[in-house]
Every structure is written in structure tokens, then in C-alpha cells.
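Annotators were shown the component list below and the corresponding predicted structure, then asked to write short factual statements about the assembly.
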Amino acid sequence: MALIVQKYGGTSVGDPDRIRNVARRAIAARKQGYDVVVVVSAMSGETNRLLKLTRELSKRPSEREQDVVVSSGEQVTVGLVVLAIQEQKAKARSFLGHQVRILTDSAFANARIKSIDSERLFASLKRKEIAVVAGFQGIDEEGNITTLGRGGSDTTAVALAAVLHASACEIYTDVDGVYTTDPRICDRARKLDRVAYEEMLELASLGSKVLQIRSVEFAMKYKVPLWVKSSFSDDSGTLITEEDEAMENVLVSGIAVTRDEARFVVRNVPDKPGLAAKIFGTLAGLDIVVDVIVQTPAHDDKRTDLAFTVGRLDLEKTRDCLRKLARQIGTGKVEHEVDIAKVSIVGVGMRNHAGVAAKMFQVLADEGVNIRVISTSEIKVSCLIDEKYAELAVRALHTAFGLDAKPAS
Amino acid sequence: MALIVQKYGGTSVGDPDRIRNVARRAIAARKQGYDVVVVVSAMSGETNRLLKLTRELSKRPSEREQDVVVSSGEQVTVGLVVLAIQEQKAKARSFLGHQVRILTDSAFANARIKSIDSERLFASLKRKEIAVVAGFQGIDEEGNITTLGRGGSDTTAVALAAVLHASACEIYTDVDGVYTTDPRICDRARKLDRVAYEEMLELASLGSKVLQIRSVEFAMKYKVPLWVKSSFSDDSGTLITEEDEAMENVLVSGIAVTRDEARFVVRNVPDKPGLAAKIFGTLAGLDIVVDVIVQTPAHDDKRTDLAFTVGRLDLEKTRDCLRKLARQIGTGKVEHEVDIAKVSIVGVGMRNHAGVAAKMFQVLADEGVNIRVISTSEIKVSCLIDEKYAELAVRALHTAFGLDAKPAS
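Structure shown to annotators:
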């Protein structure tokens, strides 16, 4: 019998009525003849409430204990979802991370799945039960509770779909699919019917918050067809899948934007092996996530400029660290600039087409938007611009690359 | 090194400040040179909030799933208590039922402990950690989460004290000990310094809600000295321990009262073996808890009257069941009466003294209180009376048996 994994996020299980709705959807899939595994997050607001409690008791809470506290949120939801399914006269059973069991490494608060036992889940499905699994949580070799990081329930769902050889993994959320860009910025944003894993990876990493990046990586690695759907409508959603020929005919699939970035430039870095590693290794050690990195070719004096962005919140920490490093290494000035946005165009079709980047620069130039830094990958072009132009840039690019929805007639 | 188990109830961990207070107390015991195991309940109100959620989703929630949901309450508390201890610069580690592991039978919602692994706890104590264990929860042979019933955290604490050979088990609550009677009824109620296990068992079963009965049984069986103390004061509390000579000189240690009982009489029950078993077996099958049972000697016609009490809430269910049974068995009328209270005097000293019961009856007679049913055990005399006389009876008995506190001078 074909098997599907359905994952419901926090807003989809936010209150008893919504939980009953989840039960109805799971039972409907079961009645269509599927074996059904449901993965749920904590009720919306619950994880934040629990995190707040830990912060009230400790300025730097132990991540082991924080995981014990926050994983209770999903524990509540699995029980409630099973009760709702049973109340609608279907069979169901809840599974926690240690019951499945979902074995992870011991990186508390950000653990990675190492293996999943499928035996108990298959036994449950064989008993005609809907198996309801707590997302976000696992257990390490010593029996400690671990969590997979924000959005980790997506990863749980995809990993289960891979291990159980599911025919699809459906991610239910409060939006009805993946859009060409953020609809709050651009009212002509259009829902995509299909998007390639690679594109979704770029879109997710560039600020589209629909899916956790790791879940997309997992889905791509194990070729799990991934649907993003709304739990509040019957729309068909967006299918994230392998690239196909139709996709290649589309140059740009989506436009992503991230704001609140800060840009740093370290001037006159000696062009010696190991210095970049030292700078970025030190920043990583301070848990500073570095985004776009650009290094210009060395000047005649064997020195180069190194530019990169960090989140606005890490500005002070990064500046202090870089000033110290600059003295040690002997670089020039450290400059920084806030109120920077990153606008990116993404599309697998770019691989086989020249001129996409040039078109992007022209569109921005036509709008009078100055480009500070450019960075490209095979299927993406990113430009750092002044944050105040972010919305204008997104809308102009959206139109220029033919993404606008047709006006309703 | 001597080991103590401290158990903190819901009000003692009701908010972050109170949790910090629990951390201070645990650390203080550690600094006095004890190995310390802390057992905690869910934050006050939390178990009820979770139960309410399950009731919103199901009229008759599956007890397996209900246990999954409600056990999350203790999971949150253990994590928070450990964070509070760590913030005060001591070492601590949390343990859930499945991590200890506390193995129970599979009677969800009311499971019994079968065994406890002490290995991980001892390893934790050896690392100089305060081990913080989730009360109320266990795990069965199949890895399902179970709970021990209301007040089950007391049982967890005493069972751990027994297994770990603790020198004492301290139960912290919002009252500062065990009283001669309910202070809300009798303002001359006096705190007891010591009370025997047997007395505490009778007091607990007779409506004193300080401790769960099973925890006292456990403590008696394994001879664990049990302290009841307030987490909000430094009073020495009450020690529950084995009977000693000093105790035997006290005729009555306490007076218990339960209200909201309903009394049933089944008239003219044929005096044949097996009929009482049939009646009470049927009631037990309906989850009706039967209290005082009195059977008068058979009349000449080989028929007898059977009287007993049930909780007021079970009145209708009991009546319907008895009417059916009466027809089957061929008894006389089934009568019932509500607004009944049970007043009991308890004391190990009674064993060796005649006349205690007679004195009780005289005290009640002097106050004009009519006794409906009398029931006695070795260390207890219970009388059913009209509920409206309950407080009067308690106060009169409290004075007559010399329990009144001396007035403050």
C-alpha cells in the first residue's frame, strides 16, 4: 500500500478545532487507501512560551535541559492529535522521538538525525493505525532527548518519508504553496506549481521561510517528492521535485529577499593562505552566521579586500572580533555598513542561459538602485543593495522576469 | 555519603521564583554533605490545563494518549529546575521516567511501579550532580509512557528513596506538616512532630490530602523515614516513621473527616456465600470506589442488611446498578441517603487501650449527633453522621481527646 507522510506546523495544530481538522485530513488520506504517518509540531506559541521559561531561569540555559523542556511541546500535540483521530472513529497511535526511535548525534538544540527505526511504525501501520510522530525531537546514543533546531519538524517528516519509502511527503502550513516572491512585498507574486529541489534550497536559504533548508536537502538526497500545502484549503499546493525539462525553459523561478543584514569590508588583507580561514573560523566560533562572502582579486601589493554580510543582530560582536583580528593579522581598516538588503533571482534554467545576471543588473540600474556587492552561483544571482530599495527591486525584477500573475479578469 | 530524596509538589514549583527556591533548598542539602535526588511535579495548574485539552478533543480520551499529554508537565519542570540549579553554580541533570528508567505495568493513568534502575542515578550522583527526576511518570515494557495517578509524584519519590537506600525522603508541599485534623475546620488543630506509618495511612485514606496513600504504603514497606515539610518555611515538619513507645502513650493522634458521601443500604440480602462479592465486584467493575462497608448479623430469616458508602458523584451510577442487582439476587429494598460525613479518630495507641470507641460515641451523643453507621479497625474508629454536624463533631472530638493546641500565651 502506498504511504504518505503529512507534516502539520504549529498554526495547523494551534487549537482544538484545528487539531480536529488535522485529524479529518489524515483520515481522508487513509480512506483514499494510503498508509498515513503524521508528523506534528508544537501548538503555535508553545515553543516560544517554553523557551521564555528557560530564559527566565538561566541566562545561558544548558542546551541539554532546554531540549528536555521544549520537546514537551510536540509531546502534547501528538497525544491530542491521536485523541482527535480516535474521536472520529479511526485508529491512531502516538510516537515520541525515543519511541520511534529517531537516533541523532548529541548536538543539543541542533542535532542531526543518524538513523530511524522503521519497525514500530510499520507495525503500527499494519494494525491500520495512523501513526502520529512528534516532530523536532530525537534521542542520542545515551538516551538524552535532542531537538533538531527551528523548523526541525520538516526534517523529521522528510527523513521519515525517506526511511519509510513514502510516495510523498506533504508539508501543511498556513500558506498554500511556494511563491515566486514574498506576497507581502509584491502583490503580483504567483504560486508555483512545481519547483526544483535546488531552486527551493536557494529560495529557502535566501529568506523564504516556508521550509527548513535541511528538510529540502534531505528530500533532494533521497528523492522524496515534497508538497507544500495549506491545511486551511484544498488547493493543490507546490510540488518540490527533481528538475525536469519544463523547468529549464523558465529562466527565473523566484525572487528572494533578506533584510536586516550588515556588510563588512576588511581592507588590505595580506594575500596569504589561511587568513580567510582564520577570519571566518573565528566568527563561526562565536556562532556568527556569515552570508555572502566576496573577495576581490589581489592588488599589485599582494593585498586584497574581503567583504561579507552578517545578520544585523551580530553587528557589534562581529565588529569587535574583526578589530582584534585586524591587529593580529595586520590588515587595513575594518568598515561596516548597516541597512543592507540582499535580493536574489533563482532558477535552474539559468544554467543554460547567458545574460540573466546582466539583465538583473540592468533592471536594477533602470530603477536607480546601486549594487554594492554581487555574488553568483550556478542557479542564483544575489545583489546587496540599500535596504530602502528592497521592495522596489523585488517588484521590478518580478515583472522583468515574467513572474507576475495575470490580473484577475 | 548519605542520600536524601526531596520531592516538590506543584505549588512549590509554580513559577520561576519558586523554582529558584527549590534549587536553593536542594543545593543547601548538597552543601550539608548529602547526595541529593529531587523529584518534581508539574507546575501547579499545568496537569489540569493538559487534561482539559484532552477532554476538549475526546469525551473518553484513550488513557495511553492522555498519559503522553499529561506527562509533559513534569518534563518541563525537571528541565527548569536543573537550569535554576546550574544558574546557582551547582551541577545537576534531569531524568525522565524512561531515562531513569522507572518500569511500570501498563495500567495507563494509574500504573504501578515494578522496578527502578538505579545505575544512571548513581552515576549522576557520583559526578556530584543533583539528579532531578520527573515524578508521576514511568514507562512500560513496550516503551509506552505511563503515569502513576494523581499524587503519583509522592510515590515516585518514596520508591526512589527505597531503591537508592536514602536516609530520608522529604515531601515538600504548601503545608508545614501533618495536623491533628483539618485546620480549616478546627482552629485548634496542632501540627504533629511524629506520626506512625499506620496512622498516616488511615489519615490519608480518611481525607487528609497531604500524601498519596500508595506513597505511605511504600514508605512503610521499605521503612523509608518520610518527612512532610513546607517549601516556604524552615519548620521541621512532620516525621512519618515506625511506631515507637512514645506514640503508644497517645490514644488518638488525629481526626479525619470526609464529606460528600452517600450511604446505601440493601435490605434483606439472602445470607448466602458469594453475594457480597457479586455486589462489590460489580460496583468495582464500574470504577465505583466503595468506602465503609457494614454488614449486620443475619436475622432469623437468614437475611441480612448490607450498608456502605460511595462518593456523592457516584450516587446515580450506584443506585442504577444496585436496583438491577437487587432484582437478580432477590434482595429487599435499596435505600440511599446523601449528605453524609465520615468522622474518624486514628491512633496506634488504641491497640492497647479499651474504651476509646465508647468515649467517641459519648462525645458525639453529648453534642446531640446521631451516629448512622459505625466501623472500626485496630487503630481507627469511624462514624457516619449527618454532614451538617461534621465540623461540630470534629471540634468536640479534638478537644475531648486532648489534641487542642495550647493557646498562644
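Statements collected:
1. The interface with chain B takes residues 16, 19-20, 50, 53-54, 56-59, 61-62, 64-69, 71-73, 75-76, 78-80, 82-84, 86-87, 93-94, 96, 98-99, 143-145 of chain A (CB under 8 Å).
2. Chain A has a mean pLDDT of 91.
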